[in-house]
Amino acid sequence: MEETNPHPRVLAIVQARMGSCRLPGKPLLSLGNSTIIEQTLRRIRAAEIVSEIVVAIPSHPENRPLLQLCRKQNIPCFAYEGSEEDVLSRLLQAATTFQADVIVRAFACDPLLEPKMLWAATRYQLDTDMDIVTVGRLPEGTACEVMPLRTLIHLDSFCKSREDREEVTSFLWRHRELFDCAILPAPLSLRMPGIRLRVQTEEDYELLRWIFSTVAPRPNGLIAVRDVLDRLLHHTEQLHKAIGSYAVVHDPKAA
After folding, report:
1. Full-model pTM
2. What is the arrangement of strands in the sheet containing 181-185, beginning at the earlier edge strand?
3. Phi-psi region for residue 129, left (φ > 0), alpha (ψ -120 to 50) or beta?
4. Is residue 15 within 8 Å of residue 85, measured between CB atoms?
5. Cβ(48)–Cβ(123) under 8 Å?
């Protein structure tokens, strides 16, 4: 009988790179009183459930500013030597290098990641040992995926196409019959999957700049996603900017 680790090591791996074709250099763009990636890291820390945070980058020289930021912030940074498009290998090597038992997969471009939902998904995975856990029907850019190391190992053997290795878990969500998956329900106040709060384009960035300049942080220093959604509902022009088909069409957790 396989022994269960009573104290699993939970590693948050933040995917980051400077070479976005739609918005180059986006992780280090200014947002609020810091940068996009620093806002994301701050929110992961606020969940108070991860053992360590690692930023996983391709080893290309253009990503050196990210490495320098991590050194300045005393955050481990893993530079993957393989193909920039093979994100699955990047995450798997980072996870094994830093001896992760459980991985919280996050994106540098999600400066409104919801700490309470990160905590809930991680706690559920630790309690149930599911192959993957996320929270469904949240605004795009506020959720994460939590999985044990074995899930990345299995995906590494299953995923052969460039697209599947770049998207990491797309194969899993297409073949749920092969995995034990849990999609937790989002709180009613956050259940707006058609809202996009992820920074991928210049338009996304302008929307997030507006949010960070108009929505006041809570006493913990973080902007609450609930307050963001309330503000958007009262500003039609900005709401229209946040609504798009991308989240509904491409996010399997929005179904």
Report:
1. 0.93
2. 77-80, 52-58, 10-15, 102-107, 145-148, 132-136, 181-185
3. left
4. no
5. no
Please write the tens of the pLDDT for every residue from 95-133: 999 999 999 999 999 999 999 999 999 999 999 999 999
Distance CA 97, CA 53 (A): 13
Specify whether the CB–CB gap between 182 and 132 falls below 8 A. yes
Report residue 84 as tokens: 């920039």
In our burial notation (b when 16+ CB lie closer than 10 A, e otherwise), range 142-170 reads: bbbbbbbbebbebbbeebeeeebbbbbbb
Please give the Cα distance from 142 to 211 (Å, whole number): 14
Angle subtended at Cα 193 by Cα 190 and Cα 198, rounded to the nearest 5 degrees = 95
CA angle centred on 52, ends 1 and 4, rounded to 5°: 10
Distance (Å, whole) CA 236 – CA 26: 26
Q: Are strands 77-80 and 132-136 parallel, antiparallel or unpaired?
A: unpaired
Helices (H), 74-183: 87-97, 115-128, 149-158, 162-167, 170-174
Closest CA to 246 of 199, 209, 185, 195: 195
What pLDDT digit, counting tens, does each position of 228-247 carry? 999 999 999 999 999 963 44
At 21, which amino acid appears?
Answer: C
End-to-end Cα separation, the chain, in angstroms:
37
Report CA-CA distances (Å) from 200 to 97, 106, 133, 205: 29, 14, 24, 7
- Tokens 């559920």 map to which residue? 124
C-alpha closest to that of 35 among 208, 156, 153, 196: 208
Tokens encoding 204: 């996304």
